[in-house]
Amino acid sequence: MRVVLEFSGDKELHLPIQYNHIVQGFIYNSMTDGDFSAFMHDEGFKHGKRQFKLFTYSRLEGEFRLLKRDDKILIKPPFKLTVSSPIDEFIYDISQNIFKKDFCVFNNQTFKLNSINIENPPVFRDKARIKFLSPVVTYSTIEDKGVRYTYYYSPWHENFSDLLLKNLLKKYEVIYGEKVKDPYFKLYPIGNENVKYQKIMKYKNTVIKGWMGIYDVECSPDLLKVAYYSGLGAKNSQGFGCFEIL
């Protein structure tokens, strides 16, 4: 399921430019089931040594201005947040709790819920054009001369689609308990490589490189559905890999 939340208020929302962890905290704090919240936060769904939280969310969407000198972003209400997950219980839980509240809190600032919309599922086909609502991230941990470092891939890198496919296959098996038939995934960036689509961000103290933009996708429809609801690529529960189908 996927929910779009719109918030209103009398003042601008003041956030640090790197605000993903604040939105993530808002989502976790909106869960009513403490045990389920702790499970989603601390454990997630396991596939071998990997753990998947199986939810993703957009950046806050609205009119904004940057105060780079102060390392802040100011967002003018109304603003929207999209939260998506293949776990219906998760979306129902946060939606019902947010709906019941008199106000919602972002970074110690209060806003009212304007609207809450559970989106109708799109038709998942073997071809689609998508637009990222939060940056897509794909990486490998590489060791060179005894030093380990994280290498983040560009969508123009030849391994990008293959890594996305491997990630999707694991998510599919976690959700459905079986392997997908005839798996296929290929992502094609629209236009030439452009650094303006690259977003170098920090989640707490970790530097993360992701990419926004519009892409064409050729994909097994079942895998596109998994990507749409759980997020494409890595670090989805940290606010990466959420997209809409155009």
How do the SSEs run, as a string of H and E? EEHHEEEEEHEEEEEHEEEEHE
**Content-based structural category:** alpha+beta
Percent helix, as a range, is: 10-25%
| Shape designation | globular
Runs in which pLDDT lies below 50 for 5 or more consecutive residues are: none
Q: How many distinct helices?
A: 5
What would a concise description of this structure say?
The protein is built from 5 helices and 17 strands. By secondary structure, the protein is α+β, with helices and mostly antiparallel strands.
What can you see in these coordinates?
There is one protein chain. With 246 residues, the protein is of the alpha+beta class. It has five helices and 17 strands. It has helices at residues 20-29, 34-42, 88-100, 160-176, 221-230; strands at 2-8, 13-16, 45-47, 50-52, 56-57, 61-67, 72-84, 104-106, 109-118, 127-132, 139-144, 147-152, 185-189, 198-203, 206-211, 214-219, 243-245. Strand 14 (198-203) and strand 15 (206-211) form a beta hairpin. It starts with a strand and ends with a strand. The mean pLDDT is 92.
